[in-house]
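Need tokens for this chain, all 202 residues.
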Amino acid sequence: MQANTTGRMLHDPKGGSFWFDAGAVCLDFAHTGGEGPYAKFETLHEGADLGDWLAQPPLAAAMTVPVTARELTAAKALRQAIWDAAHARAAQRPLPAEAVATINRAAAAAALTPELAADGTTARWRTPVRTTQALSTLAREMIELLSGPLSERIRECASDNCPLVFVDSSRPGTRRWCTMERCGNRHKLRALRARQTTGGQR
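Here are the structure tokens for all 202 residues:
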């Protein structure tokens, strides 16, 4: 259990990787794979993959009970619900009823319980640490995000071909891109080339 910042390394099936901080652990979780055209980005192929992801900071929830196939299925359903809800909020559309129900169902389970370590200065999760608890914690974070002051700052990357979603928690609230190094720089380069082309035609 750590208070580290959010963010994960994302990998492109075509090669290459980049650091992406969605601004919330639940949104980072939403980018671990998906359905349909996003299936090629799948990282949670088996229960152990989910266990490894949950054990990484900042959640740092090392499972004391192995992840079951049923829990992996439930995790993917929650992931899709978070993805659908985040995109709906970013587009200022009503949240899909099925996504809301899935998030609420996951949140209804007992969440991870923090416990002060014997040294009195560090914390950990009280054992046993179960998958349903970790999923409940992620679902509750999403509920807080959707119903809290940052709800209007859930955004989709401004690039026309990047579906990544994030919560802009910066003070000015001006974040437009998944990362400046990726889509932000691509946009700048395209804009520069367009200006050069226009200038050359005069």
